[in-house]
Write a structure and sequence with these properties.
Helices cover 32% and strands 21% of the residues. It has two helices and two strands. A two-stranded antiparallel sheet has the order 1-2. A hairpin with a 2-residue loop joins strand 1 and strand 2. The longest helix has 26 residues. It is elongated, with a radius of gyration of 21 Å. The termini are far apart.
Protein backbone atom coordinates (compact mmCIF):
# COMPACT_ATOMS: atom_id res chain seq x y z
CA UNK A 1 0.00 0.00 0.00
CA UNK A 2 1.18 3.54 -0.81
CA UNK A 3 0.13 6.45 1.39
CA UNK A 4 0.24 9.92 -0.09
CA UNK A 5 0.65 12.63 2.54
CA UNK A 6 0.60 16.37 2.17
CA UNK A 7 2.97 18.18 4.52
CA UNK A 8 2.21 21.88 4.88
CA UNK A 9 4.42 24.46 6.54
CA UNK A 10 2.25 27.57 6.48
CA UNK A 11 4.20 29.18 9.32
CA UNK A 12 7.92 28.69 9.86
CA UNK A 13 8.49 25.63 12.02
CA UNK A 14 4.80 24.66 12.19
CA UNK A 15 4.07 21.65 10.04
CA UNK A 16 0.85 19.74 9.49
CA UNK A 17 0.63 16.36 7.83
CA UNK A 18 -2.53 15.11 6.15
CA UNK A 19 -3.02 11.79 4.41
CA UNK A 20 -4.73 12.58 1.12
CA UNK A 21 -4.77 9.14 -0.53
CA UNK A 22 -4.03 5.45 -0.21
CA UNK A 23 -3.11 3.49 -3.27
CA UNK A 24 -3.29 -0.26 -3.09
CA UNK A 25 -1.90 -2.73 -5.60
CA UNK A 26 -2.01 -6.48 -5.49
CA UNK A 27 1.39 -8.13 -5.24
CA UNK A 28 0.61 -9.81 -8.55
CA UNK A 29 0.14 -6.47 -10.35
CA UNK A 30 1.26 -6.58 -13.94
CA UNK A 31 2.84 -4.01 -16.21
CA UNK A 32 -0.57 -2.48 -16.97
CA UNK A 33 -1.10 -1.77 -13.26
CA UNK A 34 2.06 0.31 -12.78
CA UNK A 35 1.66 3.98 -11.91
CA UNK A 36 -1.61 5.71 -11.17
CA UNK A 37 -4.90 5.00 -12.85
CA UNK A 38 -6.85 7.96 -14.25
CA UNK A 39 -9.49 7.70 -11.51
CA UNK A 40 -6.79 7.64 -8.82
CA UNK A 41 -5.11 10.67 -10.36
CA UNK A 42 -8.38 12.60 -10.33
CA UNK A 43 -9.09 11.62 -6.72
CA UNK A 44 -5.58 12.58 -5.66
CA UNK A 45 -5.81 15.95 -7.40
CA UNK A 46 -9.20 16.65 -5.81
CA UNK A 47 -7.92 15.68 -2.36
CA UNK A 48 -4.86 17.93 -2.76
CA UNK A 49 -7.00 20.85 -3.94
CA UNK A 50 -9.39 20.35 -1.01
CA UNK A 51 -6.45 20.83 1.38
CA UNK A 52 -4.36 23.42 -0.46
CA UNK A 53 -6.98 25.91 -1.67
CA UNK A 54 -8.55 26.71 1.75
CA UNK A 55 -5.06 27.16 3.23
CA UNK A 56 -4.05 29.49 0.41
CA UNK A 57 -7.26 31.50 0.81
CA UNK A 58 -6.59 31.90 4.53
CA UNK A 59 -3.03 33.09 3.91
CA UNK A 60 -4.07 35.57 1.22
CA UNK A 61 -6.93 36.79 3.40
CA UNK A 62 -4.53 37.55 6.22
CA UNK A 63 -2.09 39.32 3.90
CA UNK A 64 -4.82 41.61 2.59
CA UNK A 65 -6.01 42.78 6.00
CA UNK A 66 -3.76 45.81 6.06
CA UNK A 67 -3.00 48.55 3.57
CA UNK A 68 0.28 47.92 1.76
CA UNK A 69 0.92 51.65 1.55
CA UNK A 70 0.58 52.63 5.20
CA UNK A 71 0.05 49.36 7.12
CA UNK A 72 -3.29 50.47 8.55
CA UNK A 73 -5.66 47.56 9.26
CA UNK A 74 -8.57 47.37 6.83
CA UNK A 75 -12.17 46.51 7.62
CA UNK A 76 -13.10 42.87 7.02
CA UNK A 77 -15.77 43.50 4.39
CA UNK A 78 -16.09 46.15 1.74
CA UNK A 79 -12.88 47.92 2.67
CA UNK A 80 -12.11 50.91 0.51
CA UNK A 81 -8.72 52.60 0.41
CA UNK A 82 -8.47 55.44 2.88
CA UNK A 83 -7.68 58.91 1.55
CA UNK A 84 -4.25 59.22 3.16
CA UNK A 85 -2.86 56.55 0.83
CA UNK A 86 -1.89 57.80 -2.59
CA UNK A 87 -0.85 54.42 -3.92
CA UNK A 88 -3.77 51.98 -3.99
CA UNK A 89 -3.05 48.27 -3.99
CA UNK A 90 -5.24 45.43 -5.17
CA UNK A 91 -5.65 44.34 -1.53
CA UNK A 92 -7.14 47.71 -0.63
CA UNK A 93 -9.75 47.35 -3.35
CA UNK A 94 -11.05 43.94 -2.37
Amino acid sequence: MWRVKLVAELRPGVMTETEVARIERDEQAGMADLGLRLAETKQLTAALQAQIVPAQVAVVGEQCRSCVSCGRRLASKGALPHLKCFRVSACCLT
